[in-house]
Write a structure and sequence with these properties.
With 101 residues, the protein is of the alpha/beta class. The chain contains two helices and seven strands. The N and C termini lie far apart (42 Å).
Length: 101
């Protein structure tokens, strides 16, 4: 049984262990959507329901892969995503922009 922890004042509980999804964007080498979906399914089957991603993980690839998985599979995940991280597509330079669009 996966231990859980409260993350919000309203009592929302998530698995004590979360899955970092940086690798879905190819940062640690090539991966496929099918491999990422297998990882998400295995995490769900082990009782993990907390995912960490960001808009710069593969420039949106990680979030897209999570979305396509959730679209075709049962199971609830709580997703923590970091917003405001910006990467210049030409130079690769990262910065932070917390301004509203």
């Amino acid at each position: 049984m996966m231990k859980t922890r409260k993350i919000r004042q309203d009592g929302k509980m998530v698995s004590e262990v979360g899955l970092g999804c940086w690798s879905f964007g190819g940062s640690y080498g090539p991966t496929t959507e099918a491999e990422a979906h297998e990882t998400l399914a295995a995490a769900r089957d082990m009782g993990l329901d907390f995912l960490d991603t960001a808009n710069v993980y593969g420039m949106g690839v990680s979030e897209t892969i999570i979305g396509t998985f959730l679209n075709g599979n049962a199971g609830d995940f709580t997703i923590a995503t970091k917003a405001g991280i910006w990467r210049d597509p030409e130079t690769g330079k990262r910065s932070f922009n917390n301004k509203a669009p």
